[in-house]
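Protein modeling request. Please complete all fields; requests missing the sequence field cannot be processed.
Requester role: graduate student
Desired output: 3D structure, token encoding
Chains: 1
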Amino acid sequence: MARFSWISSVICLICLMCHQPAVARDIGFGKLSGVKVYGFSNDKSVALYFEPTATHLNPDCDRKATFSYSEHSIEEINRFLSIAMAAYLSGKKVRVHSQSANCEGHFIALQDSYF
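Delivered output (115 residues):
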């Protein structure tokens, strides 16, 4: 019985070490080439498309950040969209960041330089 609990402990430790928690990371920093608002029955989201000159890009996102209605309140979506539209119309840069290391945005900032 003691041997089984020792083996179980080792297996649990290995599983914990192999499981990498999601790490927050940037989706991109730069000017936007497009802002799209989707209202389809299977896709209610806002998508921001970065220009090819953008930096700090998450290679998995293909220069696209998404803000899904299922992930955020309508108030948050409106704030994200407001900042995105201000940046798009003025030609200013934005930084979009994900708290879950995917392409779902959780932070957007209108800023001239990356910090």
